[in-house]
Amino acid sequence: MDLKEIFNSFNKVNALIIGDVMIDSYMWGNVSRISPEAPVPIVAVSKKENRLGGAANVALNIQAMGATPYLCSFIGNDDGGKLFFGLMKKQKLSSDGILKSKSRTTTIKTRVLGGNHQMIRVDEEIDTPVSSAETSSLFEAVKKMVSSKKINVIIFEDYDKGCITPALISSVIEFSNTKKIPVIVDPKKRNFMEYRGVTMFKPNLKELKEGLKADFDSSNIKELSKLVDAFMKKQKIDSSLITLSEKGVYINDKKIKTLIPAHVRDITDVSGAGDTVVSVAALCLAIGLSSVNTATLANLAGGLVCEKVGVVPINKKELLKEAMMLELNQ
């Protein structure tokens, strides 16, 4: 397939995203003086905005690439939950897999920005794991979604907010294996070692070090490769895609182990870059693209969104244009 065929193939993909959803709330303004009450800047707010975040931002990235996303998650039975449903409706996203929890609040991350610089972030959340009963109800929603929507790839988007539990992970992986659906994981620390038998594992460098409880020189590819090899063998993982910030991404599918350098960027904001990387990688998995091309496209996409302020989904046309300019290997 050439690049245009690859990008057109994404339009036929149905992706199921399981994970912690949230609202990214922004307050934009200008800073011209320091508060007389404390040595902190005063932000004169001129604009407010609410966006879908967490696993919901992965859904937006999937949608932006022309594919169809389906979300399975929990929100609170609160005002934040109503706002979340309203944002999903506005973005024309299906809310069939979103369950309300009486014991949880809807996660809201509020960022206060002076100019284009983030001054402070305020988080409203409950991050304890959901109950076993809630885990069961979420797994039932997953099975229903897979049966009714012809899902081509499953994404675990774990933000350590408690939606994803070990019991859910093992149930979904076992179920997906019987259905021959590839599974990609964007992990966090708490459940890092629970994702056994997945198709692709996508941590960033910090998550890898925390998850393995190992400190190593990331510029030493042999050392990185050795650690990832051992981890993949132990966890029965087919491939790993490690994001290394400005150094690029490392891909390991047992046969190929290579570093794909990052492209020179005017980095504005790294927020949401991991969501974009896992989204593009998932679509590449769904259409059977090679590991190297998957990593290359995902790396390119992650870099592009870092040029934007705040958490924003990838622009498909921009990504295709840049991939063609770089003459991405087919």
Number of domains: 1
Q: Structural class, judged by helices and strands?
A: alpha/beta
The CATH class assignment is Alpha Beta
Label the overall shape. globular
Pattern of helices and strands: HEEEHEHEEEHEHEEHHEEEHHH
Mean pLDDT: 91
* Unreliable sequence segments: none
* Strand arrangement in the largest pleated sheet: 5-4-1-8-9-10-11-12-13
% residues in beta strands: 25-35%
Q: Characterize the biggest β-sheet.
A: 9 strands, mixed
CATH topology: UDP-N-acetylmuramoyl-L-alanine:D-glutamate ligase
Distance between the termini: 7 Å
For the record, the CATH architecture stands as 3-Layer(aba) Sandwich
Number of strands: 13
- CATH H level: which superfamily? Ribokinase
The number of helical segments is 10
Helical residue percent band: 25-40%
